[in-house]
Amino acid sequence: MTSPISPEIQISVRVFNAIKQVAQKNRDEALLAKLEENGISIQEAKLKSAGYLSSLIRTIEAVERASTIEKINILMNLFITSDSSGFIEQQPDFYQEILSIFSELSYRELMILYHLDKGGLPYTDDLHVKSPELAVDNEDMPNPLEQYEEANAYCAKNIKVNQDVLGALLGRLARTGLIGNAPEWTSLVFFFTPLYRDLKRFFSYEFYGA
User: What does the alpha-carbon distance between residue 88 and residue 130 come to, in Å, rounded to a whole number?
Assistant: First the structure.
């Protein structure tokens, strides 16, 4: 048998619920005001969910922080494609997670990820990366180190930097969790992580119809 809830706790619960209602009301009003500042009418905004409105605000903030026209164009393409497909309305939290990653990355870093992918960089959880000895015994299995070097060479050529500079840039990119080291390899060798696999389509030109 559960113990009865004390009057003090009941009062505290009611007070907290009141605080929550006020906070939600203020949050909604702030969202609507921010959108109206950016040319979106309250009538239009009220047709959307709170998650969608929050995603709009995060997108506005990301564009405000963007330092190059190329970065703004990437954010524009991400928003237009995600919005027109219904992705933002259906999965606003996921969209905001992707937006946060895109917002944190520089334009050059976004291009590095794209070209590493095109160059064939493998993943940390690929079998031949986790068990490199298998590649030695199996001629049909690719060599992870060769794949890494080929992807690096391809990327360096396309973003027009030497491979030493690219190596330093990859070290910085590891902060995003999109690339990382595999336990079986030296810390100077990077591979894509499973997180990049989950988000890969958003780094692809094909996703944006380009």
Answer: 35
Give the per-residue pLDDT at 45. 53
What is the chain's length?
210
- Burial class from Cβ neighbours inside 10 Å (0-12, 13-18, 19+) for residue 133 reads exposed
Against a cut of 0.85, is the pTM above it? no
Contact 191, 124 (CB under 8 A): yes
- 205: closest CA among 77, 94, 102, 79? 77
Residue 191 near residue 129, CB atoms below 8 Å: yes
pLDDT on residue 91: 92
> 205: which residues sit within 8 A by CB, 6+ positions away?
114
Place 34 in a pLDDT band, splitting at 50, 70 and 90: low
Helix (H/G/I), strand (E/B), else coil: 5: coil
Q: pLDDT (tens digit, 9 = 90+) per residue, 66-87?
A: 878 888 888 888 888 888 888 8
The amino acid present at 60, given as its one-letter code, is I
